[in-house]
């Protein structure tokens, strides 16, 4: 069992619904974007176009962040998820430097979206789930997977650009789509073996 | 891959300073309680996505798409996913307010006094009763995309006795006339994405550009199956990035369309001859005055029977209808409409157009040829046992081409292209996004009976309406005409004045051109009442503020209306109605319809014949007609008060496409979905064969113009606000012809044309997206948003660099912002996306940030399209660096 994701760049329209759904799901404060969409301009006028690259944690099979963690807070589950145990994380940020995908975010402070003096009821509730001084990262919405749900970014996507499932199961949708379309991974040369594949890149 | 474009937060601070609001503690009775409500998203004007609203301990923790319901099937756009911050917004108006400072302005503190609802309503009702006694037309109800949920607003206004219900949103999107004329459906025409194989678009989004869920899915599916997409646009949009981008000089699309149609008509390309002869008025004989030549006996228009060598009334038996030729009938020299159009278009060659629009002549010819080839003229397709003509090619236009002087002609020219391939209301072609049913009915002349905006408003003098129905009989909503008339009533021959401005969901100041004119007009109105969500521009100008619920607190039932961007997919084969269950109100606010019910009761117009309930009983939705709600006479007892729930229950139970279930049942599942045959999706099905003729020769347009001119002469007045009347009448000719918009001859120092596009974060003023800090964080960082965009080579020529602070000046106004150089724009264009900027002393500071595109526009009558009254959206501009600023 190894959870993974395929993102079809031909379908992605760069709308950032995933970015916002991730925020709503995980309660992250301003400045912390566990999921984001990079936007590129390619070519020169008139042969130019926009390109989009949605990014989050790659849940690498060989995660560089894992080996540098001095406290054992970063761990890898048998299903492939790379997670942080906030009770063990001391916020040293070695993992932030080690991650080649800029997927780890130190939570130095927890700010509020409408300014320091106003904590909306939503923030009041969600910020309790965050631990200041730790590192935040995409969890593939691990807390939803047990309920048979998919990560929030997958379900919200209006373009159906994302496909999620078990990469070890050749019959899963994600395995089939990668096998059929030959997905690529980011920075393959580093040997991190990401679990996020990009189609039509 | 190229380096990602990123940007510093040089222009916006995503964190509004100074918000220091202590939220009341959650209701302790809700502690430990988990519940899920059915919602309908209100974060764009369509309001079409079904949601699930999850609450814990009385707090909304999550909003997601309802996976079972169309059109979004569990997905949301970034605004929809941000909507809980629209609920939890400290800048909301939280209690009724009354002004103490008589001085009014966007930056003047009104000195608000908090009052009870009873006090506020008593004040409003007293003023309304005064104006009703004097002249009920003195009430102006300004409505807009900020609140699309009121059932009672228009009925209240009409029961009160005012015709003045004015939309604040429309003059920058005047897209209705041509579709209402040629398709007899409202609002417009769109591409049918299940079958379309070749889509040519001008000046529009297919969904991705502003992120509407259903349209994005239809778009990605169509691209996945290999639909060829050609986007003719000054900007390489998301859509253009996925298809073929053909850059065009802003505001010149009309020339390109004329040349494409000219190529199709005069360069030997095949056309759908059967459709032209049997399904349009192109063969009708036209007399030298430009009118139908009519049978002296029956008064009917005539066609020439080539086999018999004589003319007959259009509904006679014909052996061979002549599409072309000159014939003398009853001593009158006639020609077919088709011939006259072809002759007019002979001058519009691709070479001629290239000089205006910059699209190479060879490209114009190639695209015209591809369009015809992909239309597969003569092919058919079976859907649910019915054989349709199959025309999988469509050309679709939108506000980018209609919002110029001559814009209506541009859209009509696109219609000519579609009609030439016979793709109207058939699979793969150009399909209305109105009700699906028997809309294609012939009039006495055998030509499609037009609907909505294509039906001319009657002429009255002195004018009855504040917003120019009399002078622009085919207009869309026109707050700009209302404001001109309010500022100068004599010029527009008004014999009454606006005494009360009731604002509901509208923002005519920020959503329009020349905001200072609207501020001045509002200042002149003796009493302004704003049904308000936050302290926006019209609200800070108000005398009384009536705070209303946020979208999520407003319960409604709603029919799923076909969307604007495209059609097809899940929209086939079902009619859907949904419920929005209200999140408990956070503040001392009320549902807009409860406010209106109280006002109607207090002014004596709620009950009895002609009252609000009577009108509600008899009303039908303009867009979906009998696919929508229709209570029917006598359903609501017009002599007693009804709760919202009672009304919603009755709307559901009497829904013409429903099966009698009501509110109790819909609260179980969130929606009702009634299946219907997929063939019924195409209105062709209801009037197949030669049952009706679409207008190819626009005789009705000429008739409106002739009639208007005669009526102005009869009452002895000139066309108000227009320097040279011929500039109006030339737009009422029956054949599209080249019209120069107001910008083409601008002084050369205005060397660029500004263009605007909707952004995924901010397409309409629905749900206050520009004040939502989740979205602000994104738009402030987005390399394709929230800046002033210029082609890189143009910037280099001007010595301007990325990040320079620049001033942008049109002949009508100015704005400023940070420059961003790009390869994604035509060299003659300057891009300013979204509708950022302006705001008030008391608004969320986020709203004051960004470059205010609308300030560059004009409401001068001479710059408008004479038919739709649409405003010019690409004025010529000049750009220069602000010295000392970076």
Task: Please write out the topology.
The complex is a heterodimer of chains A (201) and B (886).
Chain A: E1 3-8, H1 17-26, E2 36-44, E3 47-55, H2 64-68, E4 74-76, E5 82-84, H3 94-98, E6 104-106, H4 121-126, E7 135-137, H5 142-145, H6 152-156, E8 162-166, H7 173-181, E9 196-199
Parallel strand pairs in A: 1-9
Antiparallel strand pairs in A: 1-8, 2-3, 4-5, 6-7
Chain B: E1 34-40, E2 50-56, E3 59-65, H1 84-87, E4 97-98, E5 113-114, H2 117-134, E6 139-143, H3 153-160, E7 165-167, H4 177-182, E8 189-192, E9 198-202, H5 213-224, E10 228-232, H6 238-242, E11 244-246, H7 253-266, H8 273-278, E12 285-286, E13 302-305, E14 310-313, E15 326-329, E16 332-336, H9 337-345, H10 350-357, H11 361-374, E17 380-383, E18 386-389, E19 393-397, H12 399-402, H13 407-420, E20 430-432, H14 479-487, E21 500-504, H15 515-524, E22 527-532, H16 537-540, E23 544-547, E24 556-559, E25 566-567, E26 574-580, H17 592-602, H18 612-618, H19 644-654, H20 663-669, E27 671-675, H21 699-715, H22 726-729, E28 752-755, H23 773-781, E29 788-791, H24 792-798, E30 805-810, E31 814-822, E32 829-831, E33 876-881
Parallel strand pairs in B: 6-7, 6-21, 8-25, 9-10, 9-19, 10-11, 21-22, 22-23, 28-32, 29-31
Antiparallel strand pairs in B: 1-2, 2-3, 4-5, 4-23, 8-20, 12-16, 13-14, 15-16, 17-18, 24-26, 26-27, 28-33, 29-32, 30-31, 30-33
Helix pairs in contact in B: 2-17, 3-17, 3-18, 7-10, 7-11, 7-13, 10-11, 14-15
